[in-house]
Design goal:
Blueprint lengths: L2 H23 L2 H13 L6 H14 L13 E2 L9 H11 L7 E2 L1 E2 L11 E3 L2 E2 L7 E3 L4 H4 L13 E8 L4 H10 L5 E5 L16 H4 L2 E5 L10 H5 L4 E5 L3 E2 L14 E3 L6 H10 L1 H16 L4 H18 L9
Parallel strand pairs: 3-4, 4-6, 7-8, 7-9, 9-10, 10-12
Antiparallel strand pairs: 1-2, 5-11
Helix pairs in contact: 1-4, 3-11
Length: 325
């Protein structure tokens, strides 16, 4: 990683942890006194903004009927860190707004299955019945890292780039097939892949953003790079998502927010040829992607939506809430 990229990423991490530390320095009782005022802001918003926020809350928390918490539910007062500081601090930052006796279920990490009871999670499968997976904006320090891209699309390299660890068979199959393609700069960065023809050295985010086309490939659940690609001046190429997070990957529209590829990537060369020949179409999709990312960069709105998702959860589980759900 070059020095500038490393400095930028370290600054991002420092900002995250210092902001979380500052929040913890404020007594929880003070946060709880502010909750009614914050949630009350929804009522005074103009209709379009309010409708957008309510739509997002309903998307993240699909609980339409009352439910019963399991015996393993955690109380706000006894919530403690388990392994990850990033997940813990993100969730704690919102829990501190609520009474200490309230109970909830949570599951950290890359969640690929729908829990048996409504549970706060970072990710969920895109399926018809995933309502028990209640999405929150977790592990933000990793998943919402955005690098400022000041290079215009037309000035970038006319190839597609991807770097990643090929722990999953679909990633391995991709790099084995395309590692030596003349339009591709793709490869497996794992040490265990060294000596293999598809091994490639690590590339930082700004180094990858030197390319017009950046591939997003899901790993265990969602692809971590999707957000910074869609925030950039490069065109995002990917297969249709199978998992989603707070980023609402399920609402992304092929041909509007990204270029959809076949599951086996058999049309990769065809899609590259098309957008290389039609740069105006590529730039239109990039503009739509940038606009989509922007909705997640308003800190005030993100906090309001998150607290509404949690208040609805407590209400549906038969516990005290501030709003009538």
């Amino acid at each position: 990683m070059n020095a500038l990229a490393k400095l930028h990423k370290n600054a991002h991490k420092f900002h995250f942890y210092s902001r979380q530390a500052a929040g913890l320095a404020v007594p929880a009782a003070m946060h709880r006194r502010r909750l009614a005022r914050i949630l009350g802001e929804l009522a005074i918003l103009d209709e379009e903004v309010r409708r957008d926020i309510e739509t997002r809350v309903a998307y993240y928390n699909q609980q339409a009927m009352p439910f019963t918490l399991g015996e393993a539910a955690t109380r706000v007062s006894t919530f403690t860190r388990d392994k990850s500081w990033a997940y813990y601090l993100d969730l704690l930052g919102y829990l501190r707004f609520f009474p200490r006796h309230l109970r909830f279920h949570h599951r950290f990490g890359d969640v690929r299955e729908v829990p048996d009871v409504p549970t706060f999670v970072k990710s969920r499968p895109l399926s018809e019945n995933n309502r028990n997976s209640v999405l929150l904006k977790l592990n933000t320090v990793r998943h919402y890292y955005i690098y400022p891209d000041r290079t215009p699309y037309t000035a970038k390299r006319d190839r597609v780039v991807w770097r990643g660890a090929c722990h999953r068979p679909h990633r391995q199959a991709f790099v084995e097939r395309f590692h030596d393609h003349p339009l591709c700069d793709v490869g497996d960065v794992r040490r265990s892949a060294q000596g293999q023809p598809w091994y490639r050295p690590f590339l930082s985010v700004p180094e990858q953003l030197e390319y017009k086309f950046v591939l997003s490939i899901e790993g265990k659940d969602v692809a971590t790079n999707l957000k910074w690609i869609m925030a950039s001046n490069s065109l995002c190429l990917m297969t249709r998502p199978r998992f989603e997070t707070w980023f609402m990957e399920g609402r992304l529209i092929p041909g509007h927010h990204y270029v959809e590829l076949a599951e086996d990537y058999s049309d990769l060369e065809e899609k590259l040829a098309h957008y290389r020949a039609h740069p105006e179409e590529a730039q239109r999709i990039i503009a739509n992607a940038n606009a989509y990312v922007a909705q997640f960069q308003d800190a005030w709105r993100e906090r309001l939506v998150s607290l509404l998702v949690m208040d609805k959860y407590f209400a549906r589980s038969g516990q005290p809430s501030l709003l009538s759900w």
